[in-house]
């Protein structure tokens, strides 16, 4: 059934089903075009009439990611779906009725180079069913989103997330959400962005709680490391490392040079490569988020999967998982606990997927179907599906999804701050 909501920028037409209402591809910022790809996001000018919000958004330019036998399309989505207006949000809500429901804002992962709100895993119907307004966010990726350039602000993808949170503050009440009860949550690169928000002055007051799923509080590049990536990109493109020069280069070229950026040695005398060579893009910060937290008034739910590194098929997945996620998560959790007065909750996810003959296990991304309560969907199963051929364990999705809903509603996921909530 068709439904309509009146936002400050204009009216949008969505759909209602048995779970609630959903509205797709609502712009939170103007389209980033040409040189504008390297500028801060600017407010959308709005529209007249009723905007169709029943179809998914275009996506940020991105490469195809291949994980061999494992079907990761539910996580990465369709890849690059061309279109100018991709700085958009999707909204799932019980009803756009002016109610004051808890709000969850999700920031997707994908190594700072891939991902979008179109990924099947991020279906928000279960959150709407359970009385929560879910907002999922697209942001700039790769070169436009994160490459350090003279004449451009740093961390433009993070600036996009901040702009989306500003949109939530100003607009979510229209969709039945409470702008004073917002929880931002992210997974992988999205979790690292979420952790960085805790150390970003411009984010203060935009959310009450944060959830960091398999991210890192120590995942940022130093300016020296970022400079090496910039130099390699400029060399591959034959362009000066400036926003002015890069603003004239088409997005296709930025994707073509990604192989030339893979495997760069980013180790320095003072810092290891925080991403262990898996991505040439990250935040660029003078200090790691775990060392720059601004205050403890924001509640934090944070954790990792017990076999994160298994996704990458390397010789020593345990060490890789700790390097990428474990150590940085623990450091951020400890730092937050010191200043938060009992607002830090830690979880561990240990359910082992039976995909790839049981080799995948409790790998990176395996918790997402349980958080979004879609673990029973057939497209996640089979020998090459993310959850493998076996059915999902009964009750696990209800428990994990329920903990996220409870944390968004009250700040209490169901266990004490001084203990670890285990899902397995």
UniProtKB/TrEMBL annotation:
> Where in this chain does the record put each Carboxylesterase type B domain?
4-311
* Keyword field: Hydrolase
Q: Which residues form the signal peptide?
A: none
Identify the Gene3D superfamilies for this entry. alpha/beta hydrolase (3.40.50.1820)
Task: Give the Enzyme Commission number.
Answer: 3.1.1.-
- UniProt keyword GTP-binding present: no
Q: What class of enzyme is it?
A: hydrolase
Annotated InterPro entries: AB_hydrolase_fold (IPR029058), AChE-related_enzymes (IPR050654), CarbesteraseB (IPR002018), Carboxylesterase_B_AS (IPR019826), Lipase_GDXG_HIS_AS (IPR002168)
**Known SUPFAM superfamilies for this protein?**
alpha/beta-Hydrolases
**What family, per the record?**
Belongs to the type-B carboxylesterase/lipase family. Belongs to the 'GDXG' lipolytic enzyme family.
Any idea what this protein is called? Carboxylic ester hydrolase
- Source organism per UniProt: Amycolatopsis alba DSM 44262
Supply the source organism's classification. Answer: Bacteria, Bacillati, Actinomycetota, Actinomycetes, Pseudonocardiales
